[in-house]
Structures are given as C-alpha cells and as structure tokens.
Amino acid sequence: MGVLMDERADTLDISATIIDLAQKGLLVIEEVKKIGIFGKIDYIFKKTENKKTLLAYESLLLEKLFKNKSSVKLSELKFSFYKDLSLVKTKLYERIVERKMFFDNPEVIRKKYLITGILLACLPIFSLFVLGGFFVSPSMFAVITGIATCGITLVGFSSRMPKRTADGRELYRRSLGYKMFISGAEKYRQQFFENNNLFTETLPYAIIFGLSEKFAKAMKDIGIEPKEPKWYRGSSPFAVMSFTKSIDSFSNTLSSAIAATPTKSGSSGGGSSGGGFGGGGGGSW
Q1: Helix or strand or coil: residue 70?
Q2: What is the DSSP string of 229-244?
Q3: What separation in angstroms does the CA of 231 have from each of 30, 169, 177, 179, 227?
Q4: For residue 102, what pLDDT band results from cuts at 50, 70 and 90?
Q5: pLDDT tens for residues 68-78?
Q6: How many CB atoms lie within 10 A of CB 265?
Q7: pLDDT tens digits for 243-285?
Q8: What is the DSSP string of 117-148?
Q9: How far is CA 36 from CA 39, 41, 42, 155, 214, in A?
Q10: Which residue did the predictor score with more confidence, 110 or 213?
Q11: Can you tell me the distance from the alpha carbon of 212 to that of 245, in angstroms, rounded to the nearest whole number?
C-alpha cells in the first residue's frame, strides 16, 4: 500500500513490513530502556518459531534481518543494513509489477526520464561549445533552446512519470477508502468491539496516512482499550495512547537506522527516506 500511495518503495514501507510481520507472529520487538541521560532507546528483534507463507520480499527481509541468528539489536543494523535494504526494496518493486499495480518498476521509469532529460538539456549546450557559437543561426538557436527546454521539463517531471495500471488505480481508490475508514474510526465502533485484534491490524496503516494519534484518540473516546500485543514488549505499562506513540517512535528510529550508510572516512552518516507504510494484512478492504 505504501508503494501504491506514493509510487516509491520508501524506508518506512520496509519498517511497516517488519511491524506487519511482528503482528503476524513471526518476530517479537522488545524495547530496551536507555541508559544514562544521553543514552538512546534500543530495540531487540527476536525471531519466533512460527511458520507462514510469505511473499518474496517479506522472506528476504526476514532472512537479511536475522542472518541465521535468533535475535538482533536495531543498533547492530545501523551502517550495515543499507545494502540489504536496497535488495529488499528491489524485491518489493518486483512484487508490485508482478501484481500488475504498475506497468513497470516506478524507480526505473523515473531514472529513464531523468537521464533522457539530462541528455536533452546538455546536448544542445555541448553543441554550442563545439560550434563555438559563431555558426549558429537564429533558427538553429531556437531549435537548440527548444530541445534544452524539453530536457529540463523532463527532468522536472521525471518523478511523476510512473503510471498505475487499471488494477493499480482501483486498489489506490480502495486504499483511499480505507484511509477514510481509519480517519472516521469512531463511526465504526461496532467493528472494533467485535474484533479485539482490529486495532493492532489497523495501526500500521494509520501510520501510513499520518493518522496514528487521531486513531488512538478515537479508540480512547469510544471506550476501547485493546489488549497488550504479544509482539511488542515496551518498557512502560500498556496504554493505547502511549503504545501508539511508542510504535511511532520505533518506526522512525528503525527507518533511520536501516538506511544509515557509513561515510568514506569511516564516520557515521546516512539517513532515511520518507514514505508510507506497506506490508500485508489489515482486514478485508
């Protein structure tokens, strides 16, 4: 859903997949309290013995996350997971093309138009240098200027060139409908009362749409106190509002850590790319 919404496999989409795999029972996320005033909260991923049929990018993510270990700290992934992250994103793009949501890999399409635009913009300038500017007639100059303008325009619009298929547009429309469902959660209180797990199943998608705090407040207002999830072990007593904030904090920390790259000098660097959550189940929408 994250790729479908913004046409990009962002780092947060991968983070959401990790949360989705956790709520499916394939791993446990454990919060580690910070030590000292300047310490930072860390997290431990613990692999479970549960087995489920997974998509190719989900299987690859689990494989690269643990690498034959039963547990791993998030801090251990910093400055080392970025190469694996690229592989997982590639698999995710392959999945959406296979699912016929897009005609081709959106990232490949963007790069094609970007490179074509740069070439079109630079070629006329190169031609002027070769000709020395002395043998360029006004009409030729107009043509050269037009080509350069087309190139610059292509560069500017390259990010918008990926196109959803008919199936992709339909799924996009349904995703917007799901967003409306989350945004108006208080109107559907009966569905939440009937399904105790609906809160945790819906939470990752609420984070996609930037509605996590509003969603948690709606749960509180309609008198729903979900059970503490078995897949997340926090360092403080469970409450829906504090749990939601913890998940927000975790997803942001995770996104930053797994995308961080070391600099050539050996010091730390890198960062994360924005985006929405992706992942699997969230009810029949």
Answers
A1: coil
A2: PTTEE-SS---HHHHH
A3: 8, 33, 28, 24, 11
A4: very high
A5: 899 999 999 99
A6: 7
A7: 888 888 888 888 888 888 887 654 445 444 444 333 443 333 3
A8: HHHHHHHHHHHHHHHTTTS--HHHHHHHHHHH
A9: 5, 10, 13, 48, 32
A10: 110
A11: 8
* CA separation for the pair 71, 149 (Å, rounded): 54
Question: Would you state the structure tokens that stand for residue 34, as one six-digit string?
Answer: 């910070």
Instruction: Tell me how far CA of residue 104 lies from CA of 95, 196, 215, in angstroms.
Output: 11, 39, 34
Structure tokens at 113: 């138009």
Token duo for residue 247: 């998940």
Query: Are the C-beta atoms of residues 154 and 120 closer than 8 Å to each other?
Result: yes
Residue 29 token pair: 């996320």
User: Which residues, at least 6 apart from 207, have a Cβ–Cβ distance to it below 8 Å?
Assistant: 12, 16, 247, 248, 251, 276, 277
- Distance between CA atoms of residues 143 and 140, nearest Å: 5
Task: Retrieve residue 106's tokens.
Answer: 């959106």
Q: Name the β-bridge partners of 46.
A: 28, 71
Residue 28 to residue 48: CA distance in whole angstroms: 7
Tokens 């998509």 locate to: 55
